[in-house]
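[Meeting: bench + compute handoff]

Bench side (C.D.) handed over the final construct sequence. Compute side (W.E.) agreed to return the predicted structure before the next meeting so the bench team could plan truncations. Sequence as handed over:
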Amino acid sequence: MKPNSDTPAVIFDMDGVLVDSYKAHFESWRQTARAHGLDMTEQQFAGTFGRTTREIITALWGDSVSGDGVGQWDDRKELAYRRILAADFPEMHGANELLGALHAAGFKLAIGSSGPPENVELVLDRLGGDLFSAAVTATDVTHGKPHPEVFLKAAAKLEIAPANCAVVEDAPAGVQAARRAGMIAIAITGTAPREKLATEAHLVIDSLDELSPEIIASLISGSTRR
C-alpha cells in the first residue's frame, strides 16, 4: 500500500526512551556473563546500546560462544532482563502523557527496538499497547543500528512515508539510524551525553515532558531539517 504522507508518525526506541531500563539490562548482562565465568564491565555495556543481543554476545565473547550457544545465551539474558523489569517497572518520566497526547492529536505511533518481541510486549502491556499501531523488534531485522532498517520497517508497517516520521532515541547509533532513514531524529539524554547526541540530532531533550505534538509536528514539517 502507498504510504500516507499526510499523517505524522513517531517511532520510539524503547530502552532508555520509554523505559529506564539501564539497570535491568546491565544486571541481566552481568548475571548471564557470571553464569559462564565471565564478566561485563560498565564500559563494555555502554558500547552495546542499539545493537542486538546476539551481536553483543558475538562481539564480546565470540571465542567462548559458537553456534547454538549464542541463542542460548540470548534467551538466558533476556529472560533475566524481563524478570528484573517486571518486578519494578521503571517508566520514563513523561512517557504516558506524551504517548496519550500524540495519539489524541492523530499521530501514528510505533516502537522500533533492537530487543526481542517478548521485551516489547512487556513494555507495551505496561504503557498501553492500544496507543501503538506497529512494533519492530530484533526478530524483524537483519541489521542493528546505526543501520536504518528498524525504522524503515516501522514506517512501512505504519504506511507512513519516512519523511513524515520522527524518531525518539537515546543512543548515538539510534540517532544515526534515524538520520539514515530520512527521518527527524530527536535524542533524549541519559544513556549518552548531550554533546554526543547533538552532532546529528535535530533536537536534544532531557525529558519526554519537553516534547508535545506541536513541537514534533513543527520538526516534521521541514522547517528545521538539516
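W.E. noted at the follow-up: The radius of gyration is 17 Å. C.D. will use this when planning the next construct.
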